[in-house]
Amino acid sequence: MSAHTPRTPARADALPGHEAQRTLAPLQRRLLTVTANESLGAYRVLKAPDPGPEPDAGQFAMLAAAEHWGAGEDERPFLPRAFSYARFADGEAHFLLEDVGPGTHRLCELAPGDRLWTLGPLGVGFQPPAERRRALLVGGGVGIAPLAILQDQLGDARVLLGFRDGPHAEGAALLSGALLATDDGSVGSHGLVTDLLAAELDADAHATVYACGPPPMLEAVRALCEARSVPAQLALESGMACGFGACFGCVVPTRDGYRRVCVDGPVISAERLERVEGHA
Questions:
Q1: pLDDT tens across 247-258, in order?
Q2: Distance between CA 129 and CA 134 in Å, rounded?
Q3: In the chain, N or C: fewer CB atoms in 10 Å?
Q4: Bridging pattern class, strands 7-9 and 36-40
Q5: Chosen domain end from 60, 89, 122
């Protein structure tokens, strides 16, 4: 990260006594040009050079196609979609996409030369492990995205990933050296990624867990870590309309009140959560 990249103190969500910081986004969105849209099993990896600040692992951007972004010529446009940075290399931003609805479908079909609006980096990212703890990266499905850039920034880290089936498990190529679990047993262990996590923590609990994935997975990670007194940082998922805290559409309950995922997260310390709730 360059010395001139603006950073500001954020909520100390990560670890007690550790002051979290965030890289600040410019005050206006940027128009990027797509350079690649690559297949990765059931996912797509969208790439575009970005002159904005280098993001912290766990931060996200609000994305929207510059053209044909809506439900028809006479209908309302789609809202931007929030995506974690999967990688930021040599000034090029990478995003992991899955085609699950009209907005993501439009982003998934962007081709080199198409234009993309982006606003970011936004939110609070992951913080380094303290007390010489080893890092355990735990991801599920498209939630593996912020763990890839985290692995780039941390270097040495144990990686545990879970997917529903073989085509989705191909997304594991985004990271290196991952231990895999699949719901159908077609790749890696037959079961849940939290089964792998439980075994890792039972063998050596002197770790910090970094996790991103669907809410049921994150709740299982939170409960496992709480039972073993293991610090964990969870990148939460929530529907977002703006990305910078104005709409209050992404609030989640914490032990000290409701917090906005887009500005108080998306990464929140597990100890601040009584539970991870599913999407409404």
A1: 888 999 999 999
A2: 7
A3: C
A4: unpaired
A5: 122
